[in-house]
Amino acid sequence: MILRAGSAEPLTRRTAHLTTYEEHAVTVPRSGDRALVAVPRGVTPSAVACYLHGRTGDERSIDDRAALRDGLLDAGYLVASPYLHGDQWGNRLAQDAVVALDEWVSRRWPVTARFLIGESMGGNAAANAVRLREVAWDGAVFIAPSLSLRAVWDRGEHGRDTVRDAFRVSADGHDLEPKTEHWDAVRHEPGDYVGVPIRVYASREDEVANIAGVTGPWVEMLRRGSDAVEFVEVSGPHVSEDHFRTAEVVQFFETIR
User: Fold this and answer.
1) Contact at 8 Å (CB) between 167 and 89?
2) CA dihedral 76, 102, 33, 139 (to 10 degrees)
3) What is the pTM of this model?
4) For 92-125, how does the pLDDT look when each residue is reduced to its tens digit (9 = 90+)?
5) Within 10 A of 168 (CB to CB), how many other CB atoms are there?
6) Which residues, listed in sequence order, are joined to residue 22 by a DSSP beta bridge?
7) 198: DSSP letter
8) What's the chain's average pLDDT?
9) Which one of 109, 151, 176, 231 is most buried, by most CB atoms within 10 A?
10) 27-52, pLDDT tens digit by residue?
11) What does the alpha-carbon distance between residue 242 and residue 230 come to, in Å, rounded to a whole number?
12) How far apart are CA 109 and CA 211, in angstroms?
């Protein structure tokens, strides 16, 4: 059951390390988007980590990353996970969901630091969130990011349908480039990311992240505008267990705070 924001008592849960936290299942009024918000008890969280799910995921995809969620909660972070209106690839609708959730969280908890975690499709959404600067992000982590909409289209899998629907692309794709011009991370400018420290986790075995053709050149593009970009090569297929290095993510965020 999804509750209207603030309409009922949250569930009480515990992390693997027995940190008690409250889980709020909400529909954010401004966006109409569902979200899960986990808040550790016994502390006043001053930082939020916003997790953006991959394709076919939803707000509960954070449960599949329980170790990451729990590590952030153990460290005192509030963890927010929006649904992003489905497979929208970071388009305007998805960005509205992120902004609305941040506003809802900010009215209820005194957060002063904001971090993004984008997984797969959520990586493209996170890249656009940083580019738009509608939220004052302090840092971002990209996990097995899918950063080229052209590459998604050319793979011809179900992802092509979601890109078509998200950006109203014609069936034959002749207008893909103009309709995704500002939303395709690989076509962003280095200056779009200046001032936001970024860490990227990707594997050479992962055809989605595609280090050689997509993620690697994207990282190099960012480095032309900022030195605050780190690349960590991991092992395994797309979103393998090795991509989710919780202690490193927490430490990365702590160095920024």
Assistant:
1) yes
2) -70
3) 0.95
4) 999 999 999 999 999 999 999 999 999 999 999 9
5) 9
6) 12, 39
7) E
8) 95
9) 176
10) 999 999 999 999 999 999 999 999 99
11) 17
12) 38
Among the listed residues 126, 2, 1, the one whose alpha carbon sits nearest the alpha carbon of residue 54:
126
Phi and psi, residue 141, nearest 5°: -125, 130
Distance CA 28, CA 106 (A): 13
- Longest Cα pair distance anywhere in the chain, in angstroms? 55
- Token pair of 189, please? 């400018």
As beta bridge partners, residue 39 has 22
Q: Which residues contact 197 (CB under 8 A, 6 or more apart)?
A: 138, 139, 140, 228, 229, 230, 252, 256
Show the tokens assigned to 105: 């969280």
Q: Which residues lie closer than 8 Å to 30 by C-beta, 6 or more apart? A: 96, 100, 103, 104
What distance in Å separates the CA atoms of residue 43 and residue 122, rounded to the nearest whole number? 29
Pairing of strands 3-4, 20-28: parallel
